[in-house]
Design goal:
11 helices; two-stranded antiparallel ribbon; cell membrane; ABC transporter involved in vitamin B12 uptake, BtuC; mainly alpha; single chain; 74% helix
């Protein structure tokens, strides 16, 4: 039973990280009907930005907690700037173009950012310091769940609550919902659609950066390719839950995290990355709209 709980909590941690990335996918798709395949690279850039900040502050002799918090803030700001710039350069000019054009542009941005970081850094895995301290009250349960997992779960929960509040109770949140429902009508009633789309990319990039810092600190290493796998799995999670649905993105991420954890724990870890793609195929076959997604009918 203890082993089961270890796998359960491990899957919950995985799902929480996937959720932070999947939120960006589902928010962007819900508003502009675009699959931003470069979103995983924003996650990767957030991790690398945090590593650079951590290296500098460690040399200066800063406190461990302060280093982690400052690195996370800088990573969020820097990644958000990347997301904003990417939307203006790669997606906004193609907003009226066929969807395939925007999709190709997204894939191009993904490859560009991968190779940009490869040339700016290195192709090797780089060590990432584990700055999350051990909590004394967690010592009796350290063999089941550690303080890094607790920080990841708590941070993800806080992000979800804040994002839900933002979308449901703020002016920009109402504008997001209006734009997602009918972009043309939203423009007619005075919603600044361009601003809404930019804010959506910024928020999605920020949540991905938080995920990048947390998982890098937990795993202890990063390289230029980590965003591709994480991005693909987060995309699968968004589709699984119902892309365009924020609760669906969270639910799909948790289901995917638990599935990977239990399959690798009870069957084999050699096929860990295969499970996500098997899930994607099954969902597309039997429920294309996802768990919480709703099928839409085209008007003639």
């Amino acid at each position: 039973m203890e082993y089961f709980f270890e796998l359960f909590l491990g899957g919950l941690t995985r799902g929480s990280i996937y959720a932070l990335i999947a939120l960006g996918y589902t928010m962007v798709y819900g508003i502009v009907q675009l699959i931003n395949f470069a979103h995983g690279e924003i996650y990767m850039i957030g991790a690398f930005t945090a590593l650079i900040v951590i290296s500098v502050l460690t040399i200066l002799g800063w406190n461990q907690i302060a280093i982690l918090l400052i690195a996370a803030v800088v990573a969020v700001v820097y990644s958000s700037a990347y997301g904003y710039t990417m939307e203006k350069i790669a997606y906004k000019p193609l907003r009226q173009a066929p969807r395939l054009s925007a999709l190709i542009s997204a894939i191009g941005m993904s490859l560009f950012l991968q190779n940009y970081v490869l040339l700016a850094q290195t192709s090797d895995f780089m060590p990432f310091p584990g700055l999350i301290p051990d909590f004394e009250f967690m010592e009796p349960y350290a063999h089941i769940i550690g303080s890094p997992e607790v920080v990841i779960l708590v941070t993800t929960t806080i992000v979800m609550v804040l994002l839900t509040f933002l979308i449901k109770f703020t002016k920009i949140g109402k504008a997001m919902r209006a734009t997602a429902q009918d972009r043309d009508m939203a423009m007619l009633v005075g919603v600044d659609v361009n601003r809404v789309i930019s804010v959506t990319f910024i928020i999605g990039s920020a949540t991905a950066a938080i995920g990048g810092v947390l998982i890098a600190s937990h795993i202890g290493q990063i390289n230029f390719y980590i965003g591709f796998i994480a991005g693909i799995k987060a995309f699968v999670a968004a589709v699984l839950g119902g892309i365009g649905s924020i609760p669906g993105a969270v639910l799909g991420s948790l289901v995917l995290g638990w599935t990977e954890s239990f399959f690798t724990g009870y069957i084999s870890s050699d096929y860990e990355d295969v499970f996500a793609f098997v899930f994607l195929v099954l969902i597309l076959i039997f429920r294309p709209a996802g768990i919480l997604g709703r099928s839409t009918t085209e008007k003639v």
